[in-house]
Target: P-loop containing nucleoside triphosphate hydrolase protein
Amino acid sequence: MLLLRSRVPSSTLPVIVRARCRYSSTYRASEFTSNGPYSNRVESKEAVIGPLGSGGGVKITPRVLKQHLDRYVVGQDRSKRILSTAIYHHYQRVHQARRREEREMFAAQQPSDPFEVDEQSRADVLPGARKEFVEEPALTIEKSNVLCLGPTGVGKTLMVRTLAKVLDVPFSMSDCTPFTMAGYVGEDVDQAVHRLLIAANHDVRRAETGIICLDEFDKIAKPKSMHGGAKDISGEGVQQALLKIIEGTTLQIHTKPERRPPMGLPNSPGPGSFNQPTAGGGGQKGEVVTIDTSDILFIFTGAFIGLDKIISDRVAKGSIGFNAHVHGSHSSSHPQKNPLELTEPGDLITFGMIPEIVGRIPVTTAVESLSQEMLVRVLTEPRNALLRQYETLFALSGVELRFTSPALREVARSALAMGTGARGLRTVVERLLSDAMFEAPGTSIKHVLVNEAAASRKQLPLYFARGQRHKFEAAFAAEEETWVARGNRQIVGAPADTVEEAVRAAGSGA
Model:
């Protein structure tokens, strides 16, 4: 205190003491909010949507995310766990970065105190002149992008899309096949970010915390050999272009003016429509917006056909020797693992991915092919199961549709033979019901039964008119009893309540 009095006038001493006490102690509640209890964060005037909402805290856990996925996706337990954990930690990272930005912004808005700057601090302007090191910034958590490997039609993109929907974050999906280097015919990689901006309704701040899924990622692998010195514009060139976007950079996105119908038309958006750009995004006119990709999560998906052979060769070489463990042999008590689960960065590099991009995708997960039993579960178990969709579709026309257990098993067998995963189920069901979907609406047909013979394409589905419900129930029960008598598990039971309600609503003309 005596030192302060010797250097400055006594009239300024209270100001210095108050300033030093304020910045060396904890912030007072009045410095953050005028009313209410103490808060250690700056409240934004605009509501934050998604996992950053409700005061900025992440209200989810990996376990909760996986439980939600279980309602929509059959199987793939390991991939669900990995994806749920990766997305959870990504938004924890985004939340921590936003909190730090808010603290820095609040500190920058505080009025500076001219009495706190003494002559010694004014003199320390040259690099190295200070005795102390400049304080390092706060700990920064790096982003962990995800690679999901596996065959088509097993739920890779469905899992990502479902998680993005439940978190209420912008999501866009782009196919890597048309991507080319800048300046060549094709799409630039920036288009993936542009699609995300559109999904975020041109709200830049929301887009900067969204999720981009790049499908067919294996299609931009380097060719095994290039002849004649040709430039690889759609393989390695695209991978190089993706590097800066994945790691985090600022992009200049050119937005186009939206075409809207005249006011008064049915599709014309009213006041407050979500088609209108929000604050912080682009306006009605075409303009250039800047997007920072540092907090955008990139999830790459692809079949990577041939990668399992690369992995098997590597594992086989590692098992040669007197004391080496033979990885290729499996006992009867331990089922054989999916080879893609053993993927290492070197395998992806051998496949044709450049080391720089492989190093920026630290999280890798592999999905499994769907068996016939799993395809039956895809038909019946998820919340938006394919069987429920068609039951509801018929119910809207006042017709009750029902599949027997052996019929569902036959549908799954036919889809499995197509080799397109769960996507083959819709193809098979469409073929089975094409005649019924044409004949039943507007006629006396009120019940349609798909039995095993119809599912095997040996006959058409069975039609029952109004007043023949007892015959319909008897035919269904007879085939179910035969199916169970053969030692099989009954797959279907009574129709869902939602379907019955739809039948009643359609029958009453609602």
Remarks:
- The chain is about 40% helix and 10% strand.
